[in-house]
Design a protein that fits this description.
two-stranded antiparallel sheet, alpha+beta, about 35% helix, globular, 5 helices
Length: about 190
C-alpha cells in the first residue's frame, strides 16, 4: 500500500475509488459491496427468488474485507464502523450471503440493508466477521501470512520492474527499474 518513500500507492487508492463507484451500496445499516458488476446471482428486481437469472445483491462479507483494508491502512475507527455495519446486516445474529440493496418491498419482506433471502448463515461471512474482530483488536490484519509481512513490510521489497501494457502505458520509468513489456500476443519491440 505504501511506496519506498512512505506514500500511499496511488494505484490502490484509485482502484478503491473505482470499486466504490461501481460496487458500493449505501444502506441505513452501513455500506456493503457487490461481488462484481453485472452479477446475476440473486433475486430479480421484484424480489422473486433466484431462478437462474437475477440481480446480484451486496455481500456483507465484502464489508468485512473492506474492514481488513482499513485495518491495514491504519484506519481502525473506520474498520470498527464496518464491523458495526456487518452486525446490522444480521438476522438473529446470523450473517446472510446477500442483503437487499434497493428500495424496500415490504410485501416480499425485503428491506434495504437487511437479509435478502439468500443463504443464511453464510459461514464464510461469519469467518470474515471473526477475523475482522481479531484484526481490530490486534490493530493489524489477523491472517496476513508471515512471509508476506516479512517481504513487504519489514524488508520493503519492491518489484525491480516497471511494467508497460497497452491498457496502462508508461511514458517514463525509473533508471533503477527494468522495463517489462507485456502484450497479448508475440511481438517485435523496437
Amino acid at each position: 500500500m505504501f511506496n519506498k518513500k512512505g506514500c500511499r500507492n496511488s494505484t490502490i487508492l484509485n482502484t478503491i475509488k473505482v470499486i466504490d463507484a461501481m460496487l458500493k451500496v449505501e444502506t441505513p445499516n452501513g455500506p456493503c459491496w457487490h461481488c462484481y458488476n453485472n452479477d446475476g446471482y440473486g433475486e430479480d428486481q421484484n424480489g422473486n427468488a433466484y431462478t437462474g437469472a437475477g440481480i446480484g445483491r451486496a455481500w456483507p462479507l465484502l464489508t468485512g474485507e473492506r474492514g481488513h483494508y482499513e485495518v491495514a491502512a491504519g484506519n481502525i475507527e473506520r474498520a470498527k464502523a464496518l464491523l458495526k455495519a456487518m452486525d446490522a446486516f444480521t438476522d438473529n445474529g446470523l450473517l446472510p450471503e446477500q442483503i437487499w440493496d434497493t428500495d424496500d418491498l415490504p410485501e416480499k419482506h425485503k428491506f434495504l440493508g437487511r437479509p435478502s433471502g439468500s443463504a443464511m448463515p453464510l459461514t464464510w461471512a461469519h469467518v470474515e466477521y471473526i477475523k475482522l474482530c481479531a484484526s481490530i483488536r490486534n490493530k493489524k490484519v489477523f491472517d496476513m501470512p508471515l512471509q508476506t509481512q516479512d517481504r513487504y513490510l519489514k524488508q520493503k521489497i519492491v518489484s525491480p520492474y516497471q511494467v508497460w501494457r497497452f491498457e496502462n502505458p508508461c511514458r517514463t520509468f525509473s533508471t533503477d527499474k527494468k522495463l517489462r513489456i507485456e502484450v497479448m500476443a508475440p511481438a517485435v519491440i523496437h
